[in-house]
Amino acid sequence: xxxxxxFPDGFFWGAATSSFQTEGGIENMDWAQAxxxxxxxxxxxxxxxxxxxxxxxxIAKSLGxxxxxxxxxWARIEPQEGKFDEKEIEHYRAVLRALRARGLEPFVTLxxxxxxxxxxxxxxxxxxxxxxVFARYCAYVVEQLGDLCxxxxxxxxxxxxxxxxxxxxTWPPFKKWPFIDRIxxxxxxxxxxxGKTERSWKNIAAYxxxxxxxxxxxxxxxxxxxxxxxxxxxxxxxxxxxxEANGNPFNILLAWFAxxxxxxxFLAKVEEKCDVFGLNYYLYKKFGDIHVxxxxxxxWDSYPQGICNALLMLKxxxxxxxxxxxxxxxxxxxxxxxxxKQLVRCMHAxxxxxxxxxxxxxxxxxxxxxxxxxxxxxxxxxxxNFETQERKIRPSAYVYKQIIEANALVDPVR
Length: 414
Ligand code: BGC
Known about the structure:
Elements: E1 3-6, E2 12-16, H1 19-22, H2 30-36, H3 49-62, E3 67-71, H4 74-77, H5 86-101, E4 105-111, H6 117-120, H7 130-145, E5 151-156, H8 158-166, E6 175-176, H9 180-183, E7 198-199, H10 202-228, E8 233-245, H11 249-270, E9 276-287, H12 307-313, E10 321-325, H13 336-352, E11 357-363, E12 382-384, E13 391-393, H14 395-406, E14 408-410
The structure holds beta-D-glucopyranose.
């Protein structure tokens, strides 16, 4: 075994999950309603992680992890507007204690895509008071959990949320631009909502309004959290789609514009209120590219190497970065180990080039509810049998474990 590319001491290694994709049994939120309306696949019990978190964290610990990213379900904490449920706070306190007892540093995301029904049915992030409503929830949670956790992100992936909800119409609230199908609907985005969603020119303005509202919501939440727990480290999780181009000037312009819209323009609105950034990386698009990539089970081009340039895009902000998600849907576990090694190699390259990367959370610890694709796509280090809830560790999880234990890459990478 050869060890090379050492990571900084204290580097956080772990995996990520989100509440609605794993916990099960959350009925009072917009995705559960969408499932009842036949627009997304039913969620049901998911991984029953709500009841099995201790055993799941035992697995994470046995795999060498020293940290874990999870999200809090807003609909559990605030089931009615302005009314908070202390029992559910107690549940998440037990979750955080369970992580700490196993030596896993918690990274809490306050909102990962799902809205309480009272909020979605009254307009969600289209409500003019959405930033204040969101900030009130965030400050409440951090006040209650602050003695057990210091790392928080407010929002998971504003751009994918808005694009799927207000442009493509594939996620709640299923709003769609009129001409979108003609220019932009790869097969992997086809789902139950197709043909049943609201198409309107008004959704173009709404898309930009919601993006602005999310940025304001983050900023208000940052201030609210700092008031109650000034010691907290607060950031936002941003999904970078890395756009690049061949030498063609038109393609270069296209890539520049796409990166500006998808990353720089949004981050400019929130950077002052971020102590750190979370980076989620999955997608790469090179305009004018003729290379044929191996495909993941999501039908996405496999290009883990892109994480280096994605991290370099964040260097200009001069903030610490956590890779809050990166991983692969690969039911056969054929590509995952190499994919992880490449990610790690390229994260190391970004550190060498001056990006202050502090941790990596593989997506995901468990197979889970993959959004509009339901249970058909398998990202887990741990395979889940959704009938019996049996867990089975995949071989690639042990490759990741070796990396974690060495705090370095182990053996050459192709
Ligand atoms: C999201 C996860 C999702 C993953 C894979 C990320 O963009 O945060 O919720 O499961 O991508 O599609």
